[in-house]
Amino acid sequence: xxxxxxxxxxxxxxxxxxxxxxxxxxxxxxxxxxxxxxxxxxxxxxxxxxxxxxxxxxxxxxxxxxxxxxxxxxxxxxxxxxxxxxxxxxxxxxxxxxxxxxxxxxxxxxxxxxxxxxxxxxxxxxxxxxxxxxxxxxxxxxxxxxxxxxxxxxxxxxxxxxxxxxxxxxxxxxxxxxxxxxxxxxxxxxxxxxxxxxxxxxxxxxxxxxxxxxxxxxxxxxxxxxxxxxxxxxxxxxxxxxxxxxxxxxxxxxxxxxxxxxxxxxxxxxxxxxx
Length: 275
Description:
Elements: H1 2-17, E1 21-25, H2 28-38, E2 42-46, H3 61-69, E3 72-74, E4 90-91, H4 127-144, H5 149-171, E5 178-183, H6 187-193, E6 200-202, H7 211-219, E7 224-229, H8 235-244, E8 249-251, H9 263-274
Helix pairs in contact: 2-4, 2-5, 4-5
């Protein structure tokens, strides 16, 4: 009997020793970054099971339970002040002044200083911001699990190398065609690659499409190949636009809800679609 109890005790201790860190992600693409760093040391759950508009949402009881039961929450900047969790539990490039915003990435690949204020949106569609998030995630995982710090740091270096290689490849790639972008989701990528993928019609508040701008696009639409749309596009606005601009539409998965093996594969697919 004593032997059986001893064996059970050892199994119980082992389960505690190898307990995985639970992470809740408000956007699946952010969870992909955490998975790249933590690999089999972490369990990732997504707050939403389908694409949502981050500007207009309400947390349900089951989602609040997810947040409460997770060890860490990776929140998109637009979500960060809506997550009912202690600041030390949240990883985010959040609004200026939020207690968890205390880190700045200074990579040599980026020749500008970006202040993270409430203009930070779609940060997972960015080379610089994804690297910064990876560093923040690594720092948190190391504090949770110091015995695996070398493992997390090694994965961070691999992540950095892959993302910077992707950046350099697309910086040197010649654009074959330009598109019209329904939303401004790709503004970070345009800036970081110094490439004009094509005009954006609407900001997230759907307030930038002037009559003169639309008239110019209609007149010159033969210069573009597609209208690029994402999962949260307002279908009514899109229908009205398609009545005037006779271009085929192309859906681009911008939040990571498809079955991606890594953040690299997600970002690469986005870049292939818009270039």
